């Protein structure tokens, strides 16, 4: 099973390295202390001072389903490697948080972005947002965020799939099975569109197609394990396989919206975890190698590399698996200690780089070439290229090595003398932030 293989490739090496294990534990402690307030969804924190004193408000709730799912997978992997009962308890707790993100919408099969208490630090950043909703029924006294996107659904299916495989708790697995059935049935009935509480499709990437649809269907077939869902997957594969290569084009993600590489890898994790047919596996692997792996090979991204190792059963055709593991461990070893903070600085004008300056006018740009930093007239500023830090217990989420390049990120908000602390490396801006 790929989940177990990933735990072996990534987790065992970490568990045997005292320094990496210590840093992983430090990140987990910091995350649980500051980034799961309220009802348990992952958030970012804005403090008043660089000393991380006085919480001003929380940010990033629009991506909370995605990051909470990532945290869930992290704790599942940690439990698979260490057997730590705290990891199991944390994972079960996170499953219930994701259940709340589904139930709070009071719309069958529709997953919200976040649910939290109606309190200033939680709601301040969304008071004027079209996504803001007030809780009803058992969620009275809470608010939640609507306009769900495929990004959040990808994380939700990924996290619950990992939990179903690695958490040996009957009630939790039954709950996951029930939720997955509800969501996949609703997507199928709605022609693979995310229909919100308004009765209309979301305005934030509502279509579930290509790798997303295959990953969701395989996860559902595996978790529910009834002939109907395996047949549905096979039918959708046959109907969509000719378009799949075109839907997998990722070239432009190397230069803009780099986060899509992470989403693609979450989908491929599910595809290769649950697909057993040799011909279909070969079909997927050929497309992945050509459309995705060719763009991320050699970028020293431990998360991508470990997933690739599981996809190829630890024997990739064009890479040395031991060298990949050694490189990943080195990548993790050079990350600083927590907390993971964002700072800001002014970047000199880039008049001599008109293409780069023009790109900086668009949100979601991640620079992946050394020196490509730009200043755009107006309020936009590129974030200082900070090293990206991760909860090493999970070997979670994509990053660039600071020894090679630390990407500048575009920010349209500047908070003098205030510090934004992120729970996980945020290499992408969500679609919610761009709409």
Q: How would you sum up this structure, described in words?
A:
The chain is α+β, with helices and mostly antiparallel strands. The chain has a single domain (2-333), classed as Glycosyltransferase, CATH 1.50.10. It is built from 16 helices and 9 strands. The chain has helices spanning 2-15, 18-34, 64-82, 85-103, 120-123, 150-166, 170-189, 210-224, 227-240, 244-247, 259-274, 278-296, 302-311, 321-333, 354-359, 431-434; strands spanning 44-47, 55-59, 114-117, 132-134, 142-145, 340-342, 381-382, 410-411, 419-422. The strands form 3 sheets. The chain has a 4-stranded antiparallel sheet with strand order 2-1-9-6. A 3-stranded antiparallel sheet has the order 3-5-4, with no helix packed on it. Residues 1-8, 352-417 and 425-435 have low confidence and may be disordered.
Features:
4-stranded antiparallel sheet; disordered N terminus; 435 residues; single chain
Explain briefly what this protein structure is.
The protein is of the alpha+beta class and 435 residues long. Helix content is 49%, strand content 7%. A hairpin with a 7-residue loop joins strand 4 and strand 5.
């Amino acid at each position: 099973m790929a989940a177990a293989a990933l735990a072996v490739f990534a987790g065992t090496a970490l568990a045997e390295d005292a320094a990496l294990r210590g840093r992983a534990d430090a990140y987990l402690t910091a995350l649980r202390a500051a980034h799961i307030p309220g009802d348990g969804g992952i958030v970012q924190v804005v403090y008043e001072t660089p000393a991380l004193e006085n919480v001003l408000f929380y940010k990033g709730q629009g991506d909370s389903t995605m990051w909470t799912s990532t945290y869930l997978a992290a704790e599942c992997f940690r439990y698979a490697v260490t057997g730590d009962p705290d990891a199991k308890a944390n994972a079960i707790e996170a499953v219930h948080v994701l259940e709340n993100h589904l139930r709070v919408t009071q719309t069958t099969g529709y997953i919200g972005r976040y649910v939290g208490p109606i309190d200033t630090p939680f709601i301040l950043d969304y008071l004027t947002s079209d996504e803001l909703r007030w809780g009803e029924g058992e969620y009275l006294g809470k608010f939640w965020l609507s306009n769900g996107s495929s990004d959040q659904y990808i994380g939700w299916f990924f996290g619950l799939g990992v939990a179903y495989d690695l958490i040996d708790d009957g009630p939790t697995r039954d709950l996951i099975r029930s939720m997955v059935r509800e969501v996949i049935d609703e997507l199928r009935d709605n022609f693979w569109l995310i229909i919100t509480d308004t009765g209309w499709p979301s305005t934030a990437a509502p279509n579930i197609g290509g790798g997303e649809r295959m990953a969701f269907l395989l996860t559902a077939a595996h978790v529910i394990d009834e002939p109907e869902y395996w047949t549905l997957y096979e039918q959708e594969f046959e109907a969509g396989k000719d378009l799949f290569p075109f839907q997998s084009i990722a070239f432009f993600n190397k230069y803009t919206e780099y986060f899509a590489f992470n989403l693609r890898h979450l989908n491929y994790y599910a595809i290769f975890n649950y697909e057993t047919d040799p011909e279909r596996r070969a079909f997927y692997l050929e497309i992945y190698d050509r459309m995705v792996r060719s763009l991320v090979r050699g970028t020293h991204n431990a998360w991508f590399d470990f997933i690739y190792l599981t996809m190829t059963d630890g024997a990739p055709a064009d890479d040395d698996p031991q060298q990949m593991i050694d490189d990943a461990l080195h990548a993790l070893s050079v990350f600083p200690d927590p907390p993971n903070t964002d700072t800001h600085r002014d970047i000199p004008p880039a008049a001599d780089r008109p293409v780069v300056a023009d790109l900086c006018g668009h949100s979601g740009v991640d620079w992946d070439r050394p020196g490509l930093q730009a200043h755009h007239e107006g309020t936009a500023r590129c974030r200082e290229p900070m090293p990206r830090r991760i909860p090493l217990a999970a070997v979670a989420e994509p990053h660039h090595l600071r020894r090679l390049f630390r990407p500048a990120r575009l920010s349209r908000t500047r908070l003098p003398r205030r510090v934004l602390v992120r729970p996980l490396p945020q290499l992408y801006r969500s679609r919610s932030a761009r709409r």
